[in-house]
């Protein structure tokens, strides 16, 4: 990945009537303008509670987030549950269930082999016998006090929580689901003779739930996100709910450039199709034109948005000079270019316990990105995100709550 996007990537050529919104009572409060950038609870309040739990989502809401983010994977019987990956060994107590010991297996996900327990080998009833665990116990030891306390929630339970808290607080709490690994889930049909799976089964099921809960409207308090492209293109023909193209990379090199290494080099459906375009290519002029044809926003990893300079200053105060100490030196231009094309920009992930590039103070880092002009950011520490927004000079977002960046063609 590159803080300063490479000229080759920027110059690479990319090949390349709104539907009627369903009336829905939940839209009553969505005609107003979005008056400030969004704070999105990344996997809930993952800095304080095990990720993707109702307790974590509840805490994020109590801390003031606008949206909660459930990553979604499918169970064996085709139910959507909130987990970051199909692999559940690191975020549940499945290893402590002898009745499931025989289900640990090897499987390919986005070109990488994992030996683990996979959600797609468990029915929802079986998943409900498991309990969540902290994914990063070394980094967040305090969260291990909650290991074993919380069930794995379904999408329906997340929606119900958001609506309940909207009523209780008097403010709209949105949901920001991510479709995880569409290609992996679609391929399960052929690989395992799973009749419930197959091409676009996941997307169709998600839309059915969201349309029933919120209606088919750009004013719904919902964004759907994905690192793949084909699933978003499919969704763009089926819904007016806003869509977000996520932009990934592997790491930041010592010189500040971005490392593009598989499986973080390009959307996995591009890999399967032999399409050479990388995530960085999607942020070029022609790349953003392509994204605009099916999405309303981009979700770039935060280093894509800022330039950095190595000046020898120990900004993190840890006694050594590394890439985290690079001085942030303004925008790369990606943010402004996206806005010029009518795309919102929601960046990720901001954490108190993981050094931001060029910042020693996490609130200062988040405020910088708000001041830069992002329309929203994802954080594991929602209280810090809300405080950063409050301290930011950027009182207004570029976009209205209901604005779409694309034109739906039915």
Automatic annotation (TrEMBL):
SUPFAM superfamilies from the UniProt entry:
PLC-like phosphodiesterases (SSF51695)
GO biological-process terms attached to the record: glycerol metabolic process; lipid metabolic process
The UniProt record lists the EC number as: 3.1.4.46
Gene3D superfamilies attached to this UniProt entry: Phosphatidylinositol (PI) phosphodiesterase (3.20.20.190)
Segments forming domain GP-PDE:
37-389
- Any stretches that span the bilayer, and where are they? none
The record's keywords, sorted A to Z, are:
Glycerol metabolism, Hydrolase, Signal
For this protein's source organism, the top of the classification is: Bacteria, Pseudomonadati, Pseudomonadota, Gammaproteobacteria, Methylococcales
What's this protein's family per the entry? Answer: Belongs to the glycerophosphoryl diester phosphodiesterase family.
Q: Which PROSITE patterns match?
A: GP_PDE (PS51704)
Q: Which Pfam family, giving just one, matches this sequence?
A: GDPD
Under which name does UniProt file this protein?
Answer: glycerophosphodiester phosphodiesterase
Q: Which reaction does it catalyse?
A: a sn-glycero-3-phosphodiester + H2O = an alcohol + sn-glycerol 3-phosphate + H(+)
- Gene Ontology MF: a single term: glycerophosphodiester phosphodiesterase activity
Looking at the record's lineage, which domain of life comes first?
A: Bacteria
**What is the residue range of the signal peptide feature?**
1-23
């Amino acid at each position: 990945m590159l803080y300063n996007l490479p000229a080759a990537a920027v110059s690479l050529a990319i090949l390349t009537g709104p539907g009627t919104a369903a009336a829905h009572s939940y839209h009553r409060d969505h005609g107003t303008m979005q008056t400030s950038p969004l704070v999105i609870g990344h996997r809930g309040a993952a800095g304080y509670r095990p990720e993707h739990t109702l307790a974590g989502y509840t805490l994020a809401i109590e801390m003031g987030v606008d949206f909660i983010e459930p990553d979604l994977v499918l169970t064996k019987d085709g139910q959507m549950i909130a987990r970051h990956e199909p692999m559940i060994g690191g975020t549940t107590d499945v290893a402590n269930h002898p009745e499931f010991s025989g289900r640990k297996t090897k499987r390919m996900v986005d070109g990488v082999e994992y030996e683990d327990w996979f959600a797609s080998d468990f029915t929802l009833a079986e998943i409900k016998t498991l309990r969540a665990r902290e994914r990063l116990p070394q980094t967040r030891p305090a969260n291990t006090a909650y290991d074993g306390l919380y069930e794995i929630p379904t999408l329906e339970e997340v929606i119900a929580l958001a609506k309940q808290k909207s009523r209780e607080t008097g403010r709209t709490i949105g949901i920001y689901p991510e479709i995880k690994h569409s290609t992996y889930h679609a391929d399960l049909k052929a690989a395992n003779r799973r009749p419930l799976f197959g091409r676009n089964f996941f997307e169709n099921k998600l839309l059915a739930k969201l349309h029933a809960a919120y209606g088919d409207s750009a004013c719904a308090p919902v964004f759907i996100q994905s690192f793949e492209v084909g699933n978003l293109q499919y969704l763009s023909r089926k819904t007016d709910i806003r869509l977000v193209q996520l932009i990934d990379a592997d790491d930041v090199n010592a010189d500040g450039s971005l490392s593009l290494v598989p499986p973080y080099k390009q959307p996995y459906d591009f890999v399967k199709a032999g399409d050479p375009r990388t995530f960085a290519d999607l942020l070029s002029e022609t790349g953003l034109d392509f994204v605009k044809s099916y999405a309303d926003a981009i979700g770039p990893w935060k280093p894509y948005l800022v330039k950095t300079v190595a000046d020898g200053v120990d900004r993190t105060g840890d006694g050594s000079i590394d890439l985290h100490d690079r001085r942030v030196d303004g925008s790369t231009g990606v943010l402004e270019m996206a806005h010029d094309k009518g795309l919102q920009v929601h960046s990720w992930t901001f954490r108190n316990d993981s050094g931001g590039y060029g910042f020693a103070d996490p609130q200062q880092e988040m405020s910088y990105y708000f001041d830069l002009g992002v329309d929203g950011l994802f954080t594991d520490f929602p209280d810090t995100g809300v405080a950063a927004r409050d301290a930011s000079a950027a009182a207004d977002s570029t976009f209205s709550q209901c604005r779409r960046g694309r034109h739906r063609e039915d």
